[in-house]
Q: What sequence folds into this?
């Protein structure tokens, strides 16, 4: 008996476990990319994945907001990260890791969008719910976001690589994409936005809509100096009846505001840290960024937007921005496009096309809501007045102040005293880690 | 394969049963004495070779044994003596046993086998578990650090139960783990950190679960010929841990108890409130021409030296009850240990309760089986540290001294978003509880004399649960009104091995062979959830949080299937050759790349056994060894070969998916080929024993997370690219300076390893950590940055130097214009040091006299540099953080205070010149020599002991980290804030420092 056991036990054990040994396992929380998008549900999930990437922690603060706000007259650096300090000192090095993270995250969104475009364009889905219209609407959403990203890239870095196909292979040819021309990038942006404007079927403001595409077109046309088209797109939205200015400024950038054209929504589960960075320590924040002295001075005492933008009383001696206030859960939306901007675009575009009556009307609409007296625009003052109004109206809502100053040739005048030096500071350096890895990529001048 | 195995089994079984076993019996008796003093030795096992017949000698050294017919050799063995085998030539056999001075006869465990030390052909370092017994600090690192030549151990912080990095003969990989394979009683165990919520960089350490008291010996397989039997996991060396087994004989009960106190051996002088505010004033004035209040910074009411508020006198307790014994057929060892370590930072502790039962039973002369089972439960109380604004050590350095501990209303005061250090160590709650079973079951059946089959099934089942609660009174949870987190990891691993062992003497030759088959599966499942918004701080569980922040899960699994063999031929104990081969298939690699093949060959020539050496009395033993072999590394993510879309990319709380990795279907093994040449010698009448090894390792197809252009949407892709080399030598010498009533033994070892990255993709360097750079021609762990050239003394000097920034002023650091383009920019950076030491090693001494034993152990590391990132902040003089005393005293000051020889730059708010950029300013010499442990013990005379009814009483003092000689300016040179990193090395940043421990203990044996 003993001998029997002696040799059968090991054999039994062997049989028992050999059946479990494998060299093939499948992940449970991932699927192969090739079979990721197959039906309506997975297509929608892939589109939502692109929105989710826009919420990335590096982008939500550094990317969409603070890098540009430091690198302008909007905000002062009160944090501790040396890489953020470089932005506030107008001295961004190619090795800046904060910048590199933002740059790579933007391209991450673009690659995700390209994946969705590639998969959905291929067609052949066995799902009746995935109609051509639905597919085109999904395509419109991701092309809209791709356009938003390229607009951000071209304004901050200039002639970056223009990539419109998904990355599938690890070859030098696939990876080492050279700089494109800014013209080609701008053409792609306009094409993407026009496609979105035509094909989007979504509504609301938490996802891209036809109106959001029109608004982005207005912004882009203004940016490239196509004032007639900018005016047309902005006025179309102003007159659409879809939006209205909130009577109280403080209500304008909250969830569900009547000014919401497009905002990035955050829930308690995927909340951002924006309030944490803007709020002082006494209130549980970090105060990495503060309103600049220039911005505070720009608000006149009768401007009712001031108290809804900057809190100077809660912590004596420490003014801080309060457009983001949910420090506990981080559910503050990121207002990418707010209706008030359409008036400001229209005002500037009208001024640029010498329709000062119209320009004056649009600007005063914004001033009136702010509790300010009317002004009269003319060729000599309209740029300055509109840009200043936009600065105050949209303070801390995005990256646009720097771009507005640059495209109007005011950057050196306004930011020069703070350390801005053209032409180097007209663009940020391309991240060193991309320069090092991509021999086809040419660094921006001055770096 | 299965059917093949089955057929083999049947074949062997038939052979096994075919042998008749009809033996008659006779009697042999005799006495066993100690060759040195002629005294009888009690408890010597006398066994008839090849049978289970045997007995122990009695108090007078006598034995009287029935020998079955066919039995013709007696084996006399006793721990510490050279085992003797004698032919049964008559009915009376007396033996005198020689003490085994340098354990040449000692059996060294190698993978799937064992060898006498004198017969080893490869390079194996052995450390006895004895060295661990008295050491108060938990962990097996104490057995390896400074004691095993060629093994570099860094305890990355002083955190109780914290992480260790072990490097056997250097760093071979860049992206796959460089930690050796740890094997306990044949089970490759789980190591690493399972924490899902960072507390800074210090991870948890699964190796801390191994109870040092249970360790009999540790063997480190260093060269390819010994590690190749572990094939795909052998490239970083293999650490074999053998736990204690019962000694045959009467049951022994040992009670060991120790208690120690520990404290930080150094604090860093920081500024008091007046000095701090004065420095702020001068920084503000230098930049804006206003004093600090002009920046809105008012002086606070406190004056606190924060380090005093977080460091405490901690204590270490260790209580072990071990019972072991057995008869000729069965042996057992069981232990129960309670270990408690209250760390030197308030709030940090580590508690371990460990139970073990090792048992082996010989069923018949053919069959034996055994089981080693270890259950461990540990509980680590953790505090946040390192690069973390809520860290305890972190804020004790950086929080300004003028902030009081408490506000007037009794709440914790704080400032600038930093945590209050007292709050960080008292009301922050973080407990990591591990429940774990490690064990194996094995059976061994001898079919024919010399031919046996062994089957072994091992498990390591680890359940790790961490629970964090941050009450709203903490700065970190003030905004969220309380934060709670629970994470759980279940790591289930099973491993099975079947080996056929063959061992046969043919005249002067001995042939031994092992052929085996093994499988392993490792599955990790993780979940976590976090909530915020608690009603009050009395509620600490997740259900009380009003706002659910999220939940996540992770699942990963991999499998390994292996075939291996080992052939060893020994001729006349003069010429020994060994061949090893292993084939490993891993699920981690893509189709067609799953299997890797790992061959090795080695040979040894025992010169001292040659006839021409018989008259050379100088050498007692002399052996030349050489080996070559290939080992591998598969320590990467389980699904890295695949291009994947992952879930969890949600928006609007609706499901989203997104690409997660680019994947690389061509992934394959990383391979390390290693050549080793060694010399072992014992000379001068066994008074000096030593060995010398030279090795050269080349790792090719290095698994590297190659950074790719980020415009691809990915940051990196894992590829087999490049190569890394490690070459070096190891020298170890043990001497018996005095023998006899007073004895003194000394051991010394030194190793030198030259690590070099030979090739990377396109020569592209990779920046990691704070200032580490991986680059061709440099060692892993090199630092990269600007080179300083003194301090600007005048505006004129600035004008005449390369342009730095427009804000450069006298008192700022002058950086060297390395490329001569008259502008200081990224191109002016260079290699400014390396975390790799030139030499490491240790010195042990043991002095014995009349029951008194003094052991002292020095450990050293020479030529390594540390990037002291602490000073980037605490000597930046650019913001509100508190600053060190030395920078206040020795900074450059304008005007009448100016001194041209100032070591440090001026204080200036915002640091326009970026004096804080990565530069050689922050690179310090990290060399040190440390009195690591001192043990002084006294064993009471047996007369006293016996009168008390005990068999042994020993009392001792043990000290750890008693003296450290170093030029390093911060807490401790043994540090790395990037715990567990392969490539971010030698960096100190607000890390929990090492403790100095004094402890006393007693061992009682019944």
A:
């Amino acid at each position: 008996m003993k001998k029997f056991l002696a040799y059968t036990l090991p054999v039994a054990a062997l049989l028992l476990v050999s059946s479990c040994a494998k060299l093939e396992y499948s992940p449970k929380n991932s699927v192969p990319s090739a079979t990721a998008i197959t039906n309506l549900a997975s297509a929608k999930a892939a589109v939502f994945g692109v929105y989710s990437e826009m919420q990335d922690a590096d982008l939500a603060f550094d990317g969409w907001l603070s890098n540009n706000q430091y690198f302008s007259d909007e905000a002062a650096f009160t944090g501790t990260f040396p890489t953020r300090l470089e932005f506030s000192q107008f001295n961004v090095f190619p090795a800046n890791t904060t910048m590199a993270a933002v740059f790579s995250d933007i391209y991450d969104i673009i690659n995700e969008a390209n994946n969705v475009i590639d998969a959905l364009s291929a067609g052949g889905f066995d799902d009746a719910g995935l109609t051509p219209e639905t597919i085109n609407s999904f395509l419109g959403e991701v092309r809209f976001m791709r356009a938003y990203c390229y607009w951000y890239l071209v304004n901050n870095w200039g002639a970056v690589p223009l990539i419109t196909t998904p990355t599938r292979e690890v070859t030098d040819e696939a990876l080492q994409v050279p700089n494109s021309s800014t013209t080609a990038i701008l053409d792609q942006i306009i094409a993407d936005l026009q496609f979105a404007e035509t094909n989007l079927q979504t509504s609301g403001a938490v996802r891209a809509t036809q109106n959001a595409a029109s608004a982005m077109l207005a912004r882009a046309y203004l940016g490239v100096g196509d004032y007639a088209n900018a005016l047309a797109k902005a006025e179309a939205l102003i007159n659409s009846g879809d939006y209205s200015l909130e009577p109280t400024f403080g209500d304008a950038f909250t969830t569900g505001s009547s000014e919401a054209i497009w905002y990035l929504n955050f829930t308690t589960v995927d909340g951002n840290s924006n309030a944490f960075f803007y709020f002082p320590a006494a209130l549980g924040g970090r105060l990495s960024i503060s309103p600049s002295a220039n911005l505070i001075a720009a608000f006149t005492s009768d401007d009712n937007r001031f108290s809804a933008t900057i809190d100077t009383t809660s912590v004596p001696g420490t003014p801080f921005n309060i457009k983001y206030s949910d420090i506990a859960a981080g559910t503050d939306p990121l207002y990418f496009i707010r209706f008030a901007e359409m008036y400001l675009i229209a005002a500037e575009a009208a001024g640029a096309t010498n329709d000062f009556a119209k320009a004056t009307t649009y600007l005063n609409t914004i001033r009136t809501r702010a509790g300010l007296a009317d002004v009269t625009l003319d060729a000599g003052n309209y740029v300055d007045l509109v840009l200043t109004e936009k600065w105050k109206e949209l303070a801390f809502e995005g990256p646009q102040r720097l771009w507005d100053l640059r495209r109007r040739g005011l950057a050196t005048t306004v930011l020069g005293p703070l350390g801005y030096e053209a032409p180097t500071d007209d663009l940020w350096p391309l991240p060193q880690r991309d320069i090092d890895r991509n021999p086809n990529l040419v660094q921006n001048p001055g770096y | 394969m299965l059917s093949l195995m089955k057929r083999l089994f049947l074949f062997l079984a038939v052979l096994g049963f075919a042998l008749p076993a009809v033996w008659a019996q006779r009697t042999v008796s005799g006495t066993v004495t100690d060759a040195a003093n002629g005294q009888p030795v009690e408890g010597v096992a006398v066994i008839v070779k090849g049978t289970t017949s045997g007995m122990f000698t009695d108090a007078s050294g006598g034995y009287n044994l029935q020998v079955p017919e066919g039995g013709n050799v007696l084996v006399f063995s006793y721990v510490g003596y050279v085992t003797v085998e004698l032919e049964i030539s008559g009915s009376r056999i007396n033996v005198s046993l020689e003490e085994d001075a340098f354990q040449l006869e000692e059996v060294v465990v190698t993978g799937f086998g064992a060898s006498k030390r004198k017969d080893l052909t490869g390079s194996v370092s052995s450390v006895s578990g004895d060295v661990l017994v008295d050491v108060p600090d938990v962990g097996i690192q104490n057995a390896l650090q400074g004691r095993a030549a060629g093994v570099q151990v860094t305890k990355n912080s002083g955190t109780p139960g914290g992480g260790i990095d072990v490097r056997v003969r250097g760093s071979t990989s860049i992206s796959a783990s460089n930690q050796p394979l740890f094997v306990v009683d044949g089970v490759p165990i789980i190591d690493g950190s399972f924490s899902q919520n960072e507390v800074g960089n210090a991870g948890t350490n699964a190796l801390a679960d191994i109870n040092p008291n249970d360790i009999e010996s540790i063997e480190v397989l260093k060269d390819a010929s010994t590690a190749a039997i572990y094939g795909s996991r052998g490239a970083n060396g293999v650490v074999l841990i053998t736990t204690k087994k019962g000694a045959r004989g009467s049951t022994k009960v040992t009670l060991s108890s120790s208690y120690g106190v520990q404290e930080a051996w150094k604090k860093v002088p920081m500024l008091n409130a007046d000095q701090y505010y004065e420095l702020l004033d001068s920084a503000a004035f230098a930049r804006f021409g206003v004093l600090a209040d002009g920046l809105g910074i008012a002086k606070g009411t406190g004056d606190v030296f924060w380090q005093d508020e977080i460091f405490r006198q901690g204590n270490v307790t260790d209580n072990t009850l071990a019972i072991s014994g057995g008869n000729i057929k069965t042996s057992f060892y069981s232990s129960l240990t309670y270990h408690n370590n209250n760390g030197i930072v308030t709030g940090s502790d580590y508690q371990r309760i460990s139970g073990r039962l090792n048992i082996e039973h010989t069923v018949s002369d053919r069959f034996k089986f055994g089981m080693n089972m270890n259950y461990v439960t540990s509980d680590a109380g953790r505090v946040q540290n390192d690069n973390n604004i809520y860290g305890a050590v972190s804020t004790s350095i950086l929080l300004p001294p003028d902030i009081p501990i408490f506000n007037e209303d009794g709440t914790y005061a704080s400032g600038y978003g930093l945590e209050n250090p007292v709050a960080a160590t008292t009301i922050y709650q973080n407990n990591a509880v591990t429940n774990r079973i490690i064990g194996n079951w094995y059976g061994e059946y001898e079919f024919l004399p010399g031919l046996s089959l062994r089957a072994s099934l091992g498990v390591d089942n680890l359940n790790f649960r961490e629970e964090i609660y941050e009450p709203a009174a903490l700065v970190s949870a003030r905004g969220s009104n309380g934060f709670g987190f629970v994470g759980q990891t279940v790591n289930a691993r099973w491993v099975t091995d079947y080996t056929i062992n063959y061992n046969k003497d043919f005249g002067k030759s001995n042939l031994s062979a092992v052929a085996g088959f093994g499988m392993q599966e490792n599955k990790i499942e993780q979940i976590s959830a976090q909530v915020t918004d608690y009603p009050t701080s009395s509620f600490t569980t997740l259900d009380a949080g009003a706002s659910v922040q999220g939940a996540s899960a992770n699942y990963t699994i991999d499998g390994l299937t292996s075939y291996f063999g080992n052939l060893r031929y020994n001729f006349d104990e003069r010429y020994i050759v060994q061949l090893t081969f292993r084939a490993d298939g891993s699920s981690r690699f893509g189709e067609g790349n799953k299997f890797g093949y790992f061959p090795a060959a080695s040979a040894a020539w025992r010169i001292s056994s040659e006839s021409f050496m018989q008259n050379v009395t100088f050498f007692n033993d002399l052996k030349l060894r050489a080996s070559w072999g290939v080992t591998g590394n598969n320590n990467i993510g389980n699904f890295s070969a695949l291009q994947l879309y992952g879930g969890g990319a949600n928006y609007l709380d609706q499901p989203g998916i997104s690409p997660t990795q680019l994947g690389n279907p061509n992934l394959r093994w990383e391979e390390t080929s290693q050549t080793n040449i060694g010399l072992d010698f014992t000379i001068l009448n066994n008074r000096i024993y030593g060995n010398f090894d030279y090795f050269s390792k080349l790792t090719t197809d290095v698994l590297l997370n190659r950074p790719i252009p980020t415009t691809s949407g990915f940051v990196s892709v894992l590829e087999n690219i490049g190569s890394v080399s490690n070459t070096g030598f190891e020298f170890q010498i043990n001497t018996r300076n005095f023998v006899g009533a007073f004895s003194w033994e000394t051991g010394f070892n030194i190793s030198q390893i030259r690590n070099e990255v030979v090739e990377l993709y396109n020569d592209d360097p990779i920046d990691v950590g704070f200032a580490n750079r991986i680059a061709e021609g440099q060692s892993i762990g090199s630092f990269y940055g600007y080179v300083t050239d003194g301090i600007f003394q005048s505006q004129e000097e600035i004008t005449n130097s390369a342009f730095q920034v427009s804000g450069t002023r006298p008192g700022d650091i002058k950086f060297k214009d390395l490329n001569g383009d008259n502008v200081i920019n990224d191109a002016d950076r260079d290699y400014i040091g390396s975390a790799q030491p030139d030499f490491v090693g240790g010195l042990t001494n043991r002095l014995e006299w009349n029951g008194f034993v003094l052991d002292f152990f020095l450990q050293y590391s020479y030529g390594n540099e540390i990037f002291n990132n602490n000073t980037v902040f605490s000597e930046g003089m650019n913001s509100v953080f508190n600053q060190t005393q030395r920078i206040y005293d020795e900074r450059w000051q304008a005007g009448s205070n100016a001194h041209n020889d100032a070591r440090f730059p001026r204080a200036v708010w915002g640091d326009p010149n970026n004096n804080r950029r990565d530069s050689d300013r922050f690179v310090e010499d990290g060399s040190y020599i440390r009195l690591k442990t001192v043990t002084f013990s006294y064993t009471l005379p047996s007369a006293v002991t016996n009168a008390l009814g005990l068999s042994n009483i020993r009392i001792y003092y043990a000290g750890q980290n008693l003296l450290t000689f170093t030029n390093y300016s911060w807490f401790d040179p043994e540090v790395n804030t990037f715990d567990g990193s392969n490539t971010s090395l030698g960096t100190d940043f607000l890390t929990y420092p090492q403790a100095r421990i004094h402890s006393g203990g007693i061992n009682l044996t019944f």
The radius of gyration of chain B is 31 Å. Chain B touches chain A through 107 residues (CB under 8 Å). Chain B has 13 helices and 51 strands. Residues 1-24 of chain B have pLDDT under 50 and may be disordered.
